[in-house]
Amino acid sequence: MSETGSLFGWLIAIGLFLTLLNYPVKVIYRTKIAPLPRESKMKTAYGHIQRFIVTYHRFFALFTTLMLTAHIIIQLVYRWLSWTGLAAAILMVVNGFLGGYGHFIKKKKRSAWFYIHRTVASLLIIAIVVHLVTNGR
Q: For residue 116, which of 87, 96, 89, 86 has the smallest C-alpha distance?
């Protein structure tokens, strides 16, 4: 069962990677792709990629949350509680609530929630790295 827990841990990493692509994909578009001519094949191709990443951002986050739930259950039942994993999980859940708050309540209006959402995502990356390092992965 420990292999299954590891599998779900890596599925979390993949889902989180896809979720976190939202910001860099937008930055790259604004700085490098937007100035290209409208007829550019690079602009068209990148536009498709960006649209996919941005459109499915919340679904990647939902997938990550579902994998997190499975990972926690498996780890608690068959292994142990990892304090670093618990910290990372809490940050992930808090960030999910912040994203949901922004999407459903604020209706995409930028305010403090948006910057807190990005800050928590950065802290989450650090927490996951610490979790992987302290658990020998």
A: 96
